[in-house]
Structure formats: structure tokens, C-alpha cells
Amino acid sequence: MPGANDARNSRLVKFRNLELFELYASAAKEVYVRLFDQRETLMETKRALEGYIDKLIDGIEENNRAVFEILATVEFGNRFVSHSLKTTIMSIIIGKQLRFPEGKLFAVGSAAFLHDIGKARSDNPFLNSYFGAIDDPRDLETNHPIIGASIVSEYLGYGADIAQGVRNHHEQLDGSGFPRGLNGSSISLMDRVVFTANFIDNLLYRTDYSGIETVSMAIRHAFERFPGKFDPDIKSVLLHFTEKPSVSKRRFERTVITLAASYRRWDSGGNFSCRILDISGSGARIRCKDTMVTGTMLYLNFALSNVMTFNDIVCKVVRRIPDENGYVYGLEVEDKTGAIQQKIDRYVQRYVINQR
């Protein structure tokens, strides 16, 4: 469908904030609507699906830690679409970290996006024909990888690697998975990636793991509780995201400054005004009247005398101190690469900051 959808797809750029993430979710829903409602030819549907996976691969930055935390923060109403998208994003990030070539990234992204299609009955009679007489939800759970693989290979016409990724997304290295109980070298690295991403997002969604609130917590819990299920290279990649980067403290020099700023929380709309009291590349102190709890994630926006603008800096509230004008909050910046500090240093070197 040219027109509105093309315009929306053109906006699928780098993941940097929640709004862009929601655009990807909306586009994912459109792809599934095309597939399930059979409003287009199969070729047009496949073209939309492939274009979407390509845009995800281009848009996901392999070292963007903020994306990982967004995965735990947001659900998009439709759990099927939300879970498919999150599993795809994590699979692509892992694949990039493992240096998958372009074709293999497309395969792992496609398998992750379609991994649960064997659960999805729809108005499309061709898709529904693959479910046969299965009515019991327990039978569907057991057989959905096989049904999904048949849909991917026979109906969509994708290759064996993508179909196998769908069939094996519940297979585990220790042989305790299903539907075939494969183990060890019988499971390809690509299949292990999809399994891991699927497993971790399910941990975040399950109510019996209500204490797991971030992707980092889910990763650590999975690898500590179920050590035999996961590939060691994938474990190494994901544990990297649970650790704060090691950067010399000399790169983060505190600048005392009174500066108007604004922020918005990840979990609610609207902008709030605040004043920055001091800032460095690793964090800031702000004063505002809004009440936030420790652990609140937010985006901070400010400008240094209209010379340098800082938009959507991802921060976490780590301290809260009441004062006569509301609260002073200590914020921790999620990006520890030193890029923010470098900009602040350049500003300080070029301009005299009047401290009052």
C-alpha cells in the first residue's frame, strides 16, 4: 500500500527515544494486519515484511543500552505484536554483537518476528488451514513451532534457515526444550539467539517473575537460574549489557551551573520544567516540584546558552532530597561513553559560566 504507510516507514530511523520505538510497534502491527487479513497479494505482504525487517536492522544500534531498558518498560496493548517486536529487536542486537553478516541478520530478524505465528489464528483461510483440528490451547502451545515453521516455509516461501529458527525457538542446549528435544550442536547459533531473546522477554512479561523489572535483571536471572540452557557466546554478549561501562572518572568533571531544563518520564506523557544545579557526563542534579521515586527513567533536555542542545538524554533517578522548592533529584546518565562530557567540556572551554 503506497502513500501513508510509505511515509510512516520513512520515519523508522535510529532508536533514540520512546516515540520512535512506538513507531516501530505501530509499523509491526501493520505488517501483521496485512498478513492476517489477506487484503493484499502474498507478494505485497512479503515485500512489506522484508522491508520492515531491513529497517529494523538499519535502525537498531548494537550498543544502545537505552533500547534494552525500553524493552522492559513498554507494552503496546497487543501482546502478540509487542512480544514479536521485542524478540526481534533483542535478536538483532545479539546478532550484531556476534558479527552476523547481513543475510544472517535478516534471517534471525525474520525468524524472531515470525516465531509465534503458529499460535495466531486469523481471518486468512490459507493460514488457518495449517492449524488443522487443534483446539486445545495446550496442544497449540506444544505444536506452534511446527505449525509456524510450515507457514513460513510453505505459505510465505522463506528458506530453511528462517523456518528452522521458527521451529527451534523453544529448543534448549540442555535438551529440555520442545518440540523435538534437541540439544547441543543440533541447535544452530541463530536458533539459540531467537530462543534466548524469546525466553528473556517472556520472563519480563510473566506475573510469577514480578520482581524482574529490567532487561538486565531478566538476563542475570535467566543465566543464574538456568545456566545450561544458553549459548556461552550469547551469554557473554548479553551480560555485557548488564554491566555499566568502565570509564575513567576523570572524563566526568562536575560543572556547577544554574540552567533551565525540561524532562519527561518514560511512563507518562507531558514535559516538566526543572532547573539543573550541576551536571557532568555521568549525571546531574535537578530541582523540580514533581514527585518521582528512585529508579524512575526520564529524558532530560537542555541547552547551553543556545550553543549546544542536548535532547532526550536518558537518565535514571538515583537520589531524592526534599527542599523548600520541591525536590532535588540526583540523576544518573545511562550513556557512559563520555560523549556528553566532551560537549560540556567544549562549552566550558569556549564560554565563561557565571556561577551564582
Can you describe what's shown?
The protein has 356 residues and is an alpha+beta fold. The chain has 13 helices and six strands. The protein has two domains: 4-242, Hypothetical protein af1432 (Orthogonal Bundle); 249-350, predicted glycosyltransferase like domains (Thrombin, subunit H, Beta Barrel), CATH 2.40.10. Strand 2 (272-279) and strand 3 form a beta hairpin. Helix 3 packs across helix 6, helix 5 packs antiparallel against helix 6 and helix 8 runs antiparallel to helix 9. The N and C termini lie far apart (58 Å).
CATH architecture of the largest domain: Orthogonal Bundle
Tally of individual domains: 2
Structural class category? alpha+beta
Overall spatial form: elongated
Which CATH top level class of the largest domain fits?
Answer: Mainly Alpha
Helix tally equals: 13
Q: Please summarize the sheet with the most strands.
A: 6 strands, antiparallel, barrel
> What helical percentage do the residues reach?
40-55%
Cα-atom Rg, whole angstroms? Answer: 23 Å
